[in-house]
Amino acid sequence: MLENFKSHLQQKLPFLLESKVIIAISGGIDSVVLAHLCKKLNLDFSLAHCNFNLRDEESDADEVFVLDLAEDLDVEVFVQNFDTEAYAKDFKRSIQMAARELRYNWFAELAEQLKFDYILTAHHADDNLETFLINFTRGTGLNGLTGIPMKNENIVRPLLPFSRQEIEAYAKENQIKWREDSSNSSRKYLRNKLRHEVVPILKDINPQLLDSFQNTLDHLNDTADIVAESVDSVANEAIVSLDEDDVFFKVSEFKNLKNPKAYLFELLNEFGFTEWNDVVNLLDAQSGKQVFSSTHRLVKHRDYLILSEKKSKTTKSVTLSEAEVINSKVKIPLGILFFDEADAVKEKSNTTIYVDKDKLNFPLELRIWKEGDVFHPLGMNGKKKVSKYLKDEKLSLIEKEKTWVLTSNNDIVWIVGKRADERFKVTNKTEQILKVELANP
Amino acid sequence: MLENFKSHLQQKLPFLLESKVIIAISGGIDSVVLAHLCKKLNLDFSLAHCNFNLRDEESDADEVFVLDLAEDLDVEVFVQNFDTEAYAKDFKRSIQMAARELRYNWFAELAEQLKFDYILTAHHADDNLETFLINFTRGTGLNGLTGIPMKNENIVRPLLPFSRQEIEAYAKENQIKWREDSSNSSRKYLRNKLRHEVVPILKDINPQLLDSFQNTLDHLNDTADIVAESVDSVANEAIVSLDEDDVFFKVSEFKNLKNPKAYLFELLNEFGFTEWNDVVNLLDAQSGKQVFSSTHRLVKHRDYLILSEKKSKTTKSVTLSEAEVINSKVKIPLGILFFDEADAVKEKSNTTIYVDKDKLNFPLELRIWKEGDVFHPLGMNGKKKVSKYLKDEKLSLIEKEKTWVLTSNNDIVWIVGKRADERFKVTNKTEQILKVELANP
């Protein structure tokens, strides 16, 4: 196996031969064999071990084992202890996800601080096959069937073409010791079931299963490249504006496609949508129709679909006392509001207003507009419902919901960034002018 | 199940309710249940049974069973006997392939002659899953993972969403009888192994496996639509000429793509190529480089890749006696040659020549040119190697190999369709003129 590993590195991962790398080491057979192979090839590497403290003494014994291994191999070793359960609880992750995040975050940190070029993990061909089968069994799309990438940014998996059998044989031949992982998570249970009960039958049917599987993965990855290139090109045509909050998709671009659903799925899948027929139906729906995922929503607005995040109520209103209102700035989702005294009115605009300070009742309030709000549009006689104003301005549902107002004793002073109120305007009787300016963050 | 089947037809296959259909019936549980269901729903159907004569008395007993079933259901039945083994031998097919071709050819014939709208087959969800796993185990690409289509031209598979379990339960509840298929082909062995040993474990891991699988298939079929649309659009740009024999692909179009191999695979896979790296390397290869599949070849020629069939030597030469040469036509792969007397020379062209008949030595021969051939190009002094002439004409390797010559006593009279020979031209001493014209078929 050493020779095959060497020529694999030379042909597919030659950059590893001239890099400084970290090997992510659990103490299990795969990562230990990887460390031994790298030692044999004189790679410039250190070990990094995560103690997730999930299996009491066993976790600690693993740590000791890794420290001993580092000494045997005469390489540097880093060990980090994590309170995985606390992290999982705090961030609402599964234990599996928590361990994964902690591990990769720490590796990334190590790599950056200590100038390592790559992080090596010991995933092998059977892992890859098992992952494929797990994803398939649960239901998936092309992306769940393209396998673990050999290189993904600075994470490299040099054992990926090798089978578990080859790794075990190498460990045996070279009398390499390792630690068995006794954990029995549901994920591992699943993996073991596939490993011991399904894969042997498939290998019985096709003794070259791992080779065939590699070919399948190669084809599927090529296909995924076609899909990505194609979806990118549709996105380039369809996405007309993309600000921090919203993405606008031109409906007409999807109507030109033979299967709009396929592209909508590729573009929106990552935002957690599941009701794809509803998403497709939005293309022909009336303005205002929307579809939700757990984190996002998609709204039809005239010739557009608008994707935005469901806001986690950072829409709390803000009150400002008279003392606070001078020379202050207030952050709201729309941007930053600057309050200031002014000598005279100049450069009035949608985003800058001047009001007669003596007409204000403090504290002022900044809040999202609500049904029933009425104001006196600047320059007009009489009043108007805010809802009517927003409709006449042809704002989308999302834009409407993001509309803030500045009020004084619940009278609207300004529809922020849009229209000032007639009642508070500066006149020739005005003694103190307050300037309010909205700047985007 | 009857209710589910009914609403499935109403929602997904409503056209079947108003069509005249054939049910392909083996006598096995799936097709027999399909026939019973169609009877219950009053569909306008007939049965069609193929007796492949592969299992002696058993095949005949199946036939009798189907005839009885038709009587019970009070529907029309067609039975056809095939000598499957002879067909397989004659056409070099596996027994499986032979049976498949015979079956579908006969169904197509029946449908056309007797004005049936659709042919129904009884494939179900478990068949679909097993096919996926068979393809996966052997190694495949996206197309091997998108499942059996519910409707493919006039073949419709109305049981596709239903599981084997549902079908068995329906047969039991309704005391439906069927014939067990005792055949044990390797294909069936494989299927049984997956059915009895692999699928139960996957269903144990995910009890909703068939539903998840259907979602996976839906996603993969959408993805396949993206790929097809994208590959079509590349093909439209890249294919510059497409005659009966050759397809010319513009190399530059592939160079614009991020992953040319992926597109070449999609475009050329059906022609049996396997060495995809060699195919990709052709893009940068010298003119004349080629890659072969068992049936086709791909040649680099200047800015093009030219795909053509490897000809099954229909390149046998033809000889023509003096008697045969007047008023005759001769078919060669290039087209049809018309030989005729003429009073005078008119409309000379690449495809029409006039020669002095008295200068010819019979029999004439029509054959592919060969190395060493020399001719006297019309209008030139002296002679020229045919190989040099073809090179100077900048013909591709494929065009060169398709070049035919008409010879007299092994002297070239005409490089067919390209250039006549000076020695045989009509002069003022000519008494008999022979006109030869090449017409494309």
From TrEMBL, chains A, B:
<comment type="function">
    <text>Ligates lysine onto the cytidine present at position 34 of the AUA codon-specific tRNA(Ile) that contains the anticodon CAU, in an ATP-dependent manner. Cytidine is converted to lysidine, thus changing the amino acid specificity of the tRNA from methionine to isoleucine.</text>
</comment>
<feature type="domain" description="Lysidine-tRNA(Ile) synthetase C-terminal">
    <location>
        <begin position="364"/>
        <end position="436"/>
    </location>
</feature>
<keyword id="KW-0963">Cytoplasm</keyword>
<dbReference type="GO" id="GO:0006400">
    <property type="term" value="P:tRNA modification"/>
</dbReference>
<protein>
    <recommendedName>
        <fullName>tRNA(Ile)-lysidine synthase</fullName>
        <ecNumber>6.3.4.19</ecNumber>
    </recommendedName>
</protein>
<dbReference type="Pfam" id="PF11734">
    <property type="entry name" value="TilS_C"/>
</dbReference>
<feature type="binding site">
    <location>
        <begin position="26"/>
        <end position="31"/>
    </location>
    <ligand>
        <name>ATP</name>
    </ligand>
</feature>
<comment type="similarity">
    <text>Belongs to the tRNA(Ile)-lysidine synthase family.</text>
</comment>
<dbReference type="InterPro" id="IPR011063">
    <property type="entry name" value="TilS/TtcA_N"/>
</dbReference>
<keyword id="KW-0067">ATP-binding</keyword>
<dbReference type="GO" id="GO:0032267">
    <property type="term" value="F:tRNA(Ile)-lysidine synthase activity"/>
</dbReference>
<keyword id="KW-0436">Ligase</keyword>
<dbReference type="GO" id="GO:0005737">
    <property type="term" value="C:cytoplasm"/>
</dbReference>
<dbReference type="InterPro" id="IPR012795">
    <property type="entry name" value="tRNA_Ile_lys_synt_N"/>
</dbReference>
<keyword id="KW-0819">tRNA processing</keyword>
<dbReference type="GO" id="GO:0005524">
    <property type="term" value="F:ATP binding"/>
</dbReference>
<dbReference type="InterPro" id="IPR012094">
    <property type="entry name" value="tRNA_Ile_lys_synt"/>
</dbReference>
<keyword id="KW-0547">Nucleotide-binding</keyword>
<dbReference type="Pfam" id="PF01171">
    <property type="entry name" value="ATP_bind_3"/>
</dbReference>
<dbReference type="InterPro" id="IPR014729">
    <property type="entry name" value="Rossmann-like_a/b/a_fold"/>
</dbReference>
<dbReference type="InterPro" id="IPR012796">
    <property type="entry name" value="Lysidine-tRNA-synth_C"/>
</dbReference>
